[in-house]
Each structure stands twice: as structure tokens, then as C-alpha cells.
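Subject: Sanity check before I submit

Could someone independently write out the C-alpha cells for this chain? I want to compare against mine line by line before I put it in a report. The sequence has 215 residues.
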Amino acid sequence: MVAEEQAALRRVATLVARGAAPEEVFAVVAEEVGRCIPADIVLWGDAREGLSDLAEALREADWPGRWVAPENYHLTVAFLGSVDPARLPDVLDAVRVAAPRAKAFNVPFDTVGAFPNPRRPRVVWVGPSVAVPAFGALCVSVRNALGALGFTFEPHSDAHVTLARAAGPTVALPSVDPPRIAPLRVAELTLYQSFTERAGARYEVLERFGLADAG
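---
Independent answer below. Compare away.
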């Protein structure tokens, strides 16, 4: 997943899952992205607030990081890399077929961790303490469909939300409690198109894809 963060320095496309809430907001670190197509599990409400409070606790513990804005919190399902706009219709068709094959699910945020490890953290994240099989199934369904179009993906399917990236010398991650919030309900995928402009990143929704049993 760290490779995904680095790849954001190029023009990128990301497929992400998002819970069925009215918010339209999504961002992937605007300063690192040129023009991209992201789709994520976007956090809102209690989840966003709880993770924001956790990030504040880390800041108060003097951990030196570049912090992701709360409205940009997300979980990545697939990272596509640079995508020719002419290929978008095929991408949309593939996800339309793949999304309903996966069932809606919950993602708890009960663990705080770091890549590569808490002693030498470069990326701080929060996520579930154990794997979420339904999240993995969603990743497999979507990545297989897109793989048929020639896209390739890392084998990882660990659900996590990036809170910060290390700034400066490596400092061990302080001990902080995970947020006490209800699991995030994920009921749909959303494909976005992103543009970096002088005023910041601008995101346009291309299409939403409902998961099965997302009533």
C-alpha cells in the first residue's frame, strides 16, 4: 500500500468503495495528484469525527506528520494507475458487473498501526484488528474484472485509512487508543474523476455502483 501512496505522484486512477451516505466529498491528497479517477470507501459522520480525534491525539503527542484532512479519509479497493480517458467506458462496464457480486459490509476501526512498523512509521493508519473477508471479496471481484482489461494490482487487500505520512526523521509511533466508534457501513462503490487546479483538487462523480444487499 505504500507503493500506492508513492504512485499518487503520477496521474492516477483509484477505485474505492464508499458507504451509502449523502456526502459527495472525496479526496486523495490533492497536492500529490495530477488528474485521477478515484473511487473509495469515503468516511463521514461518526467515523470521520472519530478518526479526526485520533489524529489530534497523535498531534498532541508530538508525532511529526503530514496529516490527511478528515474529509479526505478513505479506504482503497483498487489502484488503477494512469488511465486513458478512452478506456473509461470499459472500466465503468467492468465495475457495473463486479460491484453487485459483492455484499454490503461493515469495517471496524479498532487498531492503530503504521507502515512499515510502529517503530519506524512512514505511514500511520487505522483499521480493523482482523481481516474483513467481505472487503477482500470486494477487492477480488473488482480487481478481477479490471484485470481482464489489462490492469494489474498489488496482492494486498487490507482495509485501512491513512491518517498521516511521516515528515522529517523517523519517530516511533506514540501509543494511542483506537477510536470508540461504530463500524463503517459500506454499501456502494463510487468512481470519481479528479483534477488538480490552482485552487486545489476538484472531484467529479462519474458513477456509483451499489453492492448486493445494500438496502
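---
OP: Matches mine. For the report I'm noting this point. Residues 45-60 form the longest helix (16 residues).
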